[in-house]
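Before relying on records like the one below, remember that each one covers exactly one chain. Contacts with other chains, cofactors or solvent are not represented anywhere in the record.
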Amino acid sequence: MDTFPEIFSLKNKVAVVTGALGLIGKNHCQALAEAGANVIVCDLDESKCKSFASDLSERSIGLSADITKKESVIELRDRILRKFKTIDILVNNAAINDMFENPQAAVSQSKFENYPLELWQKSLDVNVTGMFLCSQVLGFEMVKKEKGSIINISSTYGIVGPDQSLYNKPDGSQSFYKSPAYPVTKGAVISFTRFLAAYWGNKGVRVNTLSPGGVENNQDEYFINNYSKKTPLGRMAKPTDYKGALIFLASDASEYMTGANLVVDGGWTAW
């Protein structure tokens, strides 16, 4: 049994992060690199992945993949294995959260009654199918050696329904509605975690969910105030607030933990 702080060390481990160029994704990569891991920064734009990886550590590399296509995930796996020979950690972080190009049309388009089927399908493809494919292809490399950690990123909206009043402007008008795709797919993340934890538990592969709360990122002041009032700690998350939880789940510090949902939301779902 390792002692503290060695139990949290990821030295020489190979960690893959999908959706790595997003706000939280970058912090996941930084946390893993700081803990000693060889980080594979994975997103759609390979040149940007490589650029960010070069700033992390000499042990990190950037690789592109379309996680909604199995052949692309297989190619990603093969490139990783050629370089590192193994995969130890997978962070299924890639996700779509609806962004409406036309603010004037956002209120109408985001209503459940009007929500476009193509946006629903796109979210399912990335948030659920992408997680499935990466776990199937990359996670199976962990099964072969009977050790590994898969961390699926969900959300508070995978646990509770969206509070539409958060999006009320000071004048009482609605800026937009939180659409159905994100909460539904994030709920699926939690269910998939439980399935795979039970399925691969006897293979030494641990599968857990990390459910973060909302991150402050230049939102309108009214939204930040609305969100903060609903949170026991009285604020939105900082992008760095999930680093400790991620390292805990990735490392041997959580070696007797699988199928769990680690909620880090400032108390949002506590009341």
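The first helix runs from residue 23 to 34.
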